[in-house]
Design goal:
Number of domains: 2
Strand content: 5-15%
Order of helices and strands: HEHEHEHEHHEEHHHEHHHEEE
CATH superfamily of the largest domain: HUPs
Radius of gyration: 23 Å
Length: about 350
């Protein structure tokens, strides 16, 4: 008799990702990395590649950890784990130590708990995310990990799409989370096509203890309100299948966004003069979606932080091209200034 369907589903998802990682390692020489893969990736002392799982102790990441612990030995992969203590709740250090002990009991090695200090930039959710990824990056570098697995599910993807829609952030925001992301294709999300209930069921049938973060139920957080109020209201109004449809929208949007980004990267060279300045007439001739991407690339390259550069900022710069009436220079995030001079768009540090 085989495993429970939920357990089989999570194991299959992890197995596929491990095969992808191993295929990339075998086809990309470490001395000449391609497609952005880091040359710092290195096998463990016993020669096996290292794959880490980020585990909070919640159902999604515990299910992911259990699947990795099961599948990795069959593929000669050394499986480890990192749990991050954000220090935002009383007793979080003890809870992180308990999660680490459970991961060790699964047979994962190395296992470590990383304590971080959460700042305030961008709000509490964004600050916690930034601190968490910084800790995961550090652990991956130190262990020479080929990949770090994250437990985001289809439900998380649907929430991300709705948040992007509410912010009016454009098609890239609607594309949600990628299956593969990060520097060197470090982060992998095996569960983006599985729902949250499947992960929880897999933990239940395997008798895996899980910790439900009270912050996930706190209405002070936007994602929590969306999860417990927004999505249920949409399903009540539109019927079941909203989560799956939103996740499908993310995949389709990502394909479109990737194609437009590639077009913009090519167009960037064709709209510059010999001195490298952007020519307004050539920018004007581009389709709006491509033009705005070229402008955003230029603003980020000049020092404007991507996370602080919103659609309205890019639209203000675009008006220097399509609605020129002698406007004054624009002050943008990161002390970047944009102005029009002699038919050229000048973007520089102010």
């Amino acid at each position: 008799m085989g495993p429970h369907p939920a357990v089989a589903a999570i194991r299959l998802a992890v197995r596929r990702v491990l095969h992808d990682v191993l295929n990339e390692l075998h086809t990309i020489p470490s001395a000449a990395p391609r497609s952005g893969r880091r040359s710092t990736t290195a096998p463990s002392p016993d020669g096996r590649p290292v794959v880490l799982v980020a585990c909070s102790g919640g159902a999604d990441s515990m299910a992911l950890a259990s699947a990795l612990a099961f599948e990795a030995p069959k593929l000669s992969v050394r499986a480890g784990a990192v749990t991050v203590d954000h220090g935002l709740q009383a007793g979080s250090d003890l809870r992180a130590a308990e999660v680490a002990a459970r991961l060790t009991a699964m047979g994962l090695d190395p296992v470590e708990s990383a304590a971080v200090t959460v700042g305030r930039a961008g709000g509490p959710e964004a600050a916690a995310r930034d601190a968490r990824y910084a800790a995961l990056d550090e652990a991956a570098e130190r262990h020479g990990a080929a990949a770090v697995l994250l437990g985001h599910t289809r439900d998380d993807q649907a929430e991300t799409v709705l948040l992007g829609l509410a912010r009016g952030s454009g098609i890239r925001s609607l594309s949600g989370m990628a299956d593969v992301s990060g520097a060197g294709r470090r982060y992998r999300r095996p569960f983006l096509r599985l729902d949250r209930q499947t992960a929880r069921k897999a933990c239940l049938v395997q008798h895996l203890p899980v910790w439900d973060d009270p912050m996930n139920d706190d209405p002070a957080y936007t994602r929590s309100r969306l999860r417990h109020e927004g999505l249920p209201a949409l399903e009540k109004a539109l019927g079941k299948g909203v989560v799956e449809a939103l996740a499908r929208t993310a995949r389709l949007s990502r394909d479109d966004a990737d194609a437009l980004d590639a077009w913009a990267a090519q167009a960037d060279e064709s709209v510059r003069d010999d001195a490298g300045l952007l020519e307004c007439a050539k920018l004007y001739a581009l389709p709006p979606a491509v033009r705005r991407r070229v402008l955003r690339r230029a603003l980020v390259a000049a020092g404007s932080p991507a996370g602080s550069l919103f659609a309205r900022h890019v639209e203000e710069v675009e008006r220097l091209i399509v609605g020129w009436r002698g406007q004054k220079p624009l002050n943008l995030p990161g002390r970047v200034e944009a102005l029009r001079q002699g038919g050229r768009l000048v973007i520089r540090q102010s």
